[in-house]
């Protein structure tokens, strides 16, 4: 059942499991033709042969959990949609990938958009929806172009539109480009934005499953969650459960970035470790060592080199004090100043705070003021406790998870690198040289004359 | 045609007069487009974000006239439209250049060199954040994480990807843009103007033949895991080495670029690679490994 014996093997062929990324290296991988050559839309045929309720149960049994960060079971989300209520039901795909460090859905949609379209058709059949929306962040026009084309191809081939594959299912898909707001990745803010409003989160309950888009029952799923569904249907839930662990089954995209030798996408069973990923891919850049990293974007508490062997699944990362999040493995080496990194992330949260609730709006502002002072060598020791205190007043007390995310880098960096903050204060400035952190710092030729 | 409220300052006297309307022919054309957009949604108000992109595609920024048009089409007040237009960072509220050059300065890109690139571009172009060069070509901005961290540092031009940049490659890029030389993104299609980009964002597919295919299936970093899993050559040898050194003729002879690795025009003609030869896309070659 588990892959425990094989995990000792460090060969990438055994450790990795490309499914969604399996044919990204082929010419025109984003077209319907190529997708169909790789058993595309076969999962849909199998799904349409089931009853919608059986389909929901099947996805639930597969153990698929949300890949957008929270890890909520996908099938359960679908099950929450009330049936026979006489209201329209909606599926909204969250393609607003904006969490700092996260870069999986964009390459996925660029190279293989049909996996999402097929997943959408399956999900809509299950939840009895005849209109789905893809909310794509606006700043990625290359992906928008391919989504437009994939949707056009799917309509033309009869995978969207009226009476899909003779099943009686009618489905319309609308591709909707956002306009630049991180908060719209939060599902209820996304719904407000999709309704043509400022993207601000809604009070819950009612949850979107009861009163979502246009106050109708709505499922909001991440791109990768929905795109994983066709393979589960086509190859079976047992196949899916043969990867990963009991509570975190299946495959997922890990995104390695930063001071590593080979940044990029690595699709593997859940539970792989950062050490395994680094071992197979050439490690950190030559001559440097890992200092800190995030398991799933800037909103997940940072880790250090002590955590190289933490299994990267929902339970493993949770037990080590962080969250799996989006599996955005941002790795920073010893040339990087933690205070600088955290200051920049905090500036981001302050910029993106929607302003609706006071703890987040005011708290992120004051965190930035303190951090900028500390980074510039103008801080005092009591600022460190103040930072912690403000973060504590944001965390768990904000309207939505953006506030919790803003507190994460503060808490975790103070926990692991308090000395480095103190150095900035006692040394009256930053002891690091930012030039040494750049991608070209170690290259032999002078890049910039 | 219109001026932004920031140019007029705050006045406590007379309220602003209503914005002038679009000329009849422009209005007729935009109305036809707007109806198509509205038809995509069960509730017309959902069309507001795309319609703001649409009016931005007409004038290059969101004017009072554009907002009045959106309000008319959706039966909203101008206050409701303004509230939305001012919330989202992609709507410009003042005239700007043909090419929006956005340098990612969120933590990872900043550390990897985005800060240095942004600083050097400001100096090179003589403009600050959000400002436009005198020739009206380039508007420089720092942007937040654009979901391309495995290609850091990243620069976006009209929201197409220019991956693995350096200060030198970024300066060449803006020079080419200003000189009217064609540049090719590492991921994305040949650039169109900011206005044309805004039209795609409004939901009107790019109609240029071949645009959707350009730059191939996936960028090099998107493929490193797949290549390892397939037992293909170690990543260090999959793509070109990261260091500068003598390149080109010899590299090209042995390395026929796959569809996923396109040559970038702003480095042309003397240099290869997706971005900068001294720092190309993809993993490093590790000497001595």
Automatic annotation (TrEMBL), chain B:
Q: Where is this region: Disordered?
A: 1-20, 232-289
Q: Where are the transmembrane segments?
A: none
EC no.?
Answer: 1.6.5.11
Q: Which cofactor does it need?
A: [2Fe-2S] cluster
Q: Which residues form the signal peptide?
A: none
InterPro entries assigned: NuoE-like, NuoE_dom, NuoE_N, Thioredoxin-like_sf
Regions of biased composition (Basic and acidic residues) lie at: 240-269
Q: Name one GO molecular function term.
A: oxidoreductase activity
Write the record's keywords in alphabetical order, separated by commas: 2Fe-2S, Iron, Iron-sulfur, Metal-binding, Oxidoreductase
What SUPFAM superfamilies does the annotation carry? Thioredoxin-like
Q: Which family does it belong to?
A: Belongs to the complex I 24 kDa subunit family.
What this protein is called in its record is NADH-quinone oxidoreductase subunit NuoE
State the encoding gene. Answer: nuoE
């Amino acid at each position: 059942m588990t892959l425990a014996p094989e995990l000792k093997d460090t060969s990438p062929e055994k450790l990795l499991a490309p499914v969604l990324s399996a044919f990204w290296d082929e010419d025109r991988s984003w077209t319907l033709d190529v997708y169909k050559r790789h058993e595309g839309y076969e999962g849909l045929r199998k799904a349409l042969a089931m009853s919608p309720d059986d389909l929901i149960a099947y996805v639930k049994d597969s153990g698929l959990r949300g890949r957008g960060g929270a890890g909520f079971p996908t099938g359960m989300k679908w099950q929450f949609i009330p049936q026979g209520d006489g209201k329209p039901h909606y599926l909204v795909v969250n393609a607003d990938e904006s969490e700092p460090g996260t870069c999986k859905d964009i390459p996925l949609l660029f190279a293989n958009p049909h996996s999402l379209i097929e997943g959408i058709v399956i999900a809509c059949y299950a939840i009895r929806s005849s209109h789905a929306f893809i909310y794509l962040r606006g700043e990625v026009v290359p992906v928008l172009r391919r989504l437009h084309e994939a949707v056009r191809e799917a309509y033309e081939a009869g995978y969207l539109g009226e009476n899909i594959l003779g099943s009686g299912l009618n489905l319309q898909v609308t591709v909707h480009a956002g306009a630049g707001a991180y908060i719209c990745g939060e599902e209820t803010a996304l719904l407000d934005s999709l309704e043509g409003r400022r993207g601000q989160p809604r009070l819950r309950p009612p949850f979107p499953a009861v009163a979502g888009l246009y106050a109708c029952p709505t499922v909001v799923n991440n791109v990768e969650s929905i795109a994983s569904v066709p393979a589960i249907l086509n190859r079976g839930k047992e196949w899916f459960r043969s990867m990963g662990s009991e509570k975190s089954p299946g495959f997922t995209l890990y995104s390695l970035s930063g001071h590593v030798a080979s940044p990029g996408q690595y699709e593997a069973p859940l539970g792989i470790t950062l050490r395994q990923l680094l071992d197979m891919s050439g490690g950190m850049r030559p001559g440097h060592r890992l200092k800190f990293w995030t398991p799933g974007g800037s909103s997940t508490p940072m880790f250090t080199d002590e955590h190289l062997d933490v299994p990267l699944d929902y339970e493993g990362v949770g037990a080590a004090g962080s969250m799996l999040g989006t599996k955005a493995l941002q790795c920073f080496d010893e040339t990087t100043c933690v205070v600088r990194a955290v200051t920049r992330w905090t500036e981001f949260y302050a910029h993106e705070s929607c302003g609706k609730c006071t703890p987040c709006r005011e708290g992120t502002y004051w965190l930035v003021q303190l951090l900028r002072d500390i980074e510039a060598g103008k801080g005092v020791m009591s600022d460190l406790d103040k930072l912690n205190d403000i973060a504590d007043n944001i965390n768990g007390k904000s309207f939505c998870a953006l506030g919790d995310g803003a507190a994460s880098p503060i808490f975790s960096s103070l926990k692991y690198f308090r000395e480095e903050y103190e150095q900035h204060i006692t040394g009256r400035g930053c002891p690091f040289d930012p030039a040494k952190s750049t991608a070209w710092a170690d290259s032999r030729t002078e890049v910039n004359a | 045609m219109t001026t932004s409220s920031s140019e007029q300052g705050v006045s406590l006297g007379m309220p602003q007069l209503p914005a002038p309307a679009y000329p009849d022919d422009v209005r007729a054309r935009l109305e036809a487009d707007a109806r198509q957009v509205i038809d995509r949604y069960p509730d017309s108000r959902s069309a507001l974000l795309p319609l703001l992109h649409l009016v931005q595609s007409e004038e290059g920024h969101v004017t009072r006239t554009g907002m009045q048009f959106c309000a008319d089409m959706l039966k909203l007040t101008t206050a409701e439209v303004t509230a939305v237009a001012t919330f989202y960072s992609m709507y410009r509220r003042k005239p700007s250049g043909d090419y929006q050059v956005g340098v990612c300065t969120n933590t990872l890109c900043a550390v990897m060199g985005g800060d240095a690139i942004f600083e050097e571009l400001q100096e090179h172009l003589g403009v600050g954040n959000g400002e436009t060069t005198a020739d009206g070509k380039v508007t420089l901005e720092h942007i937040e994480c654009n979901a391309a961290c495995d290609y850091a540092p990243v620069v976006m031009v009209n929201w197409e990807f220019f991956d693995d940049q350096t200060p030198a490659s970024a300066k060449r890029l803006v020079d080419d843009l200003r000189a009217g030389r064609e540049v090719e993104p590492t991921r994305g299609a040949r650039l169109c103007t900011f206005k044309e980009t805004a039209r795609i964002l409004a939901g009107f597919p790019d109609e240029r033949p071949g645009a959707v295919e350009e730059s191939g299936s996936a960028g090099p970093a998107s493929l490193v895991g797949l290549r390892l899993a397939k037992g293909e050559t170690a990543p260090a040898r999959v793509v070109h080495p990261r260091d500068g050194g003598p390149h080109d003729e010899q590299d090209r002879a042995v390395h026929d670029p796959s569809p996923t690795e396109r040559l970038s025009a702003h480095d042309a003609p003397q240099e290869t690679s997706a971005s900068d030869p001294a720092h190309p896309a993809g993993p490093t070659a590790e000497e001595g490994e």
